[in-house]
Amino acid sequence: MSLAIRVLFVCVGNSARSQLAEALLRLTDSRFEPFSAGFEPSHVDPRTIQALEAVGVDATGLRSKSINEFRTERFDYVIALCDKSASECLSMPSVSEVIAWDFPDPVISNDPAAFRHTLHDIHERIKLFVLVKTKHQEDL
Q1: Running DSSP on this structure, what letter comes out for residue 30?
Q2: Are strands 5-11 and 75-80 parallel, antiparallel or unpaired?
Q3: Edge-to-edge strand order for the sheet containing 32-38?
Q4: pLDDT for the residue 3
Q5: How far apart, in Å, do the first and last CA atoms of the chain sit?
């Protein structure tokens, strides 16, 4: 059995986007071991939990974490979910690849459907990521 593919999702507050991504990847493919963190962690926004639960995704165990908790760990991929955190992710040691995605922060949006839209958009990107990366692993 091969080792799990370790992925760290990063955004500034670790309150919405990275939490959504962590929970969605956990659900999408068991070959991946997802984590999330922020450069300025605060708390998991309750609307993040609501958005996940509305589509049947288990949000148990999600908590806002600092990137510093993971500085010494090895990751296959670090995925920045906003431009603000992308450049800071480049300084992460023991990372095979840094990927930059940019999603608007639903926490600051006035759109009542912002969390639902962000959840959908991140899920679509994760499905594509899993498809590409698992195909790459199979080709090796």
Answers
A1: T
A2: parallel
A3: 32-38, 5-11, 75-80, 95-100
A4: 84
A5: 15
